[in-house]
Amino acid sequence: SWATSMRAGGGILRGGRSVHGGAKGVMMKSTAAVNRTRGSRKQKRGTSMLFDEAYRPQDSRHFSIQASSTFVPETSKKFLLTYADGTVLKGFRGLDVVQLGNFHAQAPFGVITDCNSPDFNGVDGILGFGLPKDGSEGADLPRPVLFALTDPTAKDSNAGSLLRKFSFFSTDTAAELQLGGYDPASCSEVMLYTPSLSSSDFVVGVTSLSYGTPGGSDHIELLKFKSPTGGEYLPAILDSGTSCLVIPGDNVFGTLSNSPFDDFANNWKENTSFWITFGGRTFEIPYKSWFLSSTQETCVQPSPDGMVGILIGDVFFRQYIVEFDMQDNIRPIIGVAKLNAQYTPVKSNELDYFKLQQAPRAKLQLLKGEETMYPAEHSTRLEEVDQIPIANNMGTQYFMDLSIGTPKQPFTVIFDTGSAVFGVFSYKDKLPANIKAQLTAHPYVSMRIDPMNILMQRPGEVRDSKKQQVQGQAVSLAMAATEIRGGPEGRRHHALAVTMLLCMMSMLLAVVLAYRKAALQRRTRMVVELPVEYRGVSRDDEV
Q: Shortest CA distance to 342 belongs to which of 214, 183, 192?
């Protein structure tokens, strides 16, 4: 009674948004598709009729600038955000006192004045717990809220002792965000740590993804690397904003000899599990996590064309508590521990102190990220942890409460670890006249915001920073992509690229020294400025 759907009208569930792009999904003939969303879409994309249903601003609470005595506008920082499903958010940046759980501080946020997606109906905004990004996105979007709260120079702050890390997990009916660390009672095993492959995203290197019956002999490997030598992996993003497990629907530009999703679809049966390996450790994703019994739908989907990795969504967070440690300025540290099935998520904010084990930073600094994971080390320090309840809507959407302004204005926003976007809605026609006038003097900075875009590789795409457009943040994985495409072979290309770059720099240095020598002989000082641009490695391994 099971069948594989065609590549049409599908999408990847992302916190209520369906990411379109020709995805297919496994579904029961007697039920709706796996990728059903609240707002239905038109077949034709790229038009004003992308969504059948309109965004209803009257269903959301809006931030009132006039009602807050501490609001500071930053009208030169205008943004136009585009998500992979066609959702567009427009607005500008502002500063005000933000209250999150028991902590507050003056922090930047987005004042969203335009929205086109019905998936935000009944929601007041979005709160991303991702990392700061490079380029236009990092310069023009508000600084991630946890970074703002823990900034020692932040005004009106009581978060000076809060560590810059958080943990998240979900159950079938509730979820919990833990600021500053994690509650040991929520874990049934020791936390294991690995460094992220990226400095600006929560990325791990998946070396194996298998599927089969627990305890059975029918396990199949879904990642069949072409000409394997032992060092291959695919990048994977841990993202609470993605509902399902999203795996390659093709051979990833020849990196694999198979299509993982097709192999899964052809071998599908009940009461089976996935086993995903990163950092040398294997984690089981049981049937109850990726099969939604309430709707009789699977939550496993193929990636759209051009995506070179895996999205690990809420199916993982329902079995494991994941800690995101952003205290390291070079790259974040990711911790994973088995969730204690007896632990009950909090129903209201709770602030407590725990003697927590800590990440073995000295060991982790020596790793690239995909080789191994280390268990936590003992610590005698008491760490402050703020436990915040997260509303869980059918295991596919997460919402949390916060407040902004003086006096406080309450909002309910989408919680998302896959982006750094933080913004709430505000009526454009109710903006103060002086702010309206200032906004007309500045252009919008456009950027794509979605974890899927981070893993996108587009044939022949040239990224021009002068266009002020972030092309899906893929630059943050440029070095990792070299290895993704061929393991050791990719590393050899990378080494060749670095060698060529060093040779070029040596030649340029020789030129500079020659000019300098000639200048000194003429008793004339000369400065020669020679621009050097590193564009990374393209899909054809050309520099």
A: 183
Res 146 pLDDT > 60: yes
How far apart (Å, rounded) are the C-alpha atoms in residues 301 and 387? 32
444 vs 514, higher pLDDT: 444
Residue 252 CA to residue 473 CA, distance in Å, equals: 19
- Is the peptide bond prior to 286 cis by the omega test (within 30 degrees of 0)? no
Phi, psi of 516, rounded to the nearest 5 degrees: -65, -40
Task: State pTM to two decimals.
Answer: 0.73
Report the distance separating Cα 313 and Cα 323, nearest Å.
Answer: 15
DSSP secondary structure of 498-534? HHHHHHHHHHHHHHHHHHHHHHHHTT-----------
Contacts (Cβ under 8 Å, ≥6 apart) of 155: 105, 106
Which two tokens mark 309? 């990795």
Chain centroid to CA 411: how far? Answer: 22
Distance CA 324, CA 332 (A): 7
CA 539 from centroid of its chain's CA atoms = 23
How many other C-beta atoms lie within 10 A of the C-beta of residue 466? 5
Q: How far apart are CA 279 and CA 369, in angstroms?
A: 7
Residue 423: which of 120, 5, 93, 135 has the closest Cα? 93
Type and span of the H or E element at 139: helix 135-140
Residues 31-54 have pLDDT tens digits of 223 332 333 344 333 434 567 789
Whole-angstrom distance, CA of residue 21 vs CA of residue 10: 7
**What are the structure tokens assigned to 7, written together?**
């590549």
Give, in order, the Cα–Cα distances in Å from 109 to each of 34, 92, 101, 132, 159: 34, 9, 17, 13, 17
Residue in the structure block whose two tokens are 């990325």: 203
What element of type H or E holds 137? helix 135-140
CA distance 235 to 216: 28
- Distance CA(454)–CA(307), nearest Å, equals 9
Distance of CA 482 to the CA centre of its chain: 20
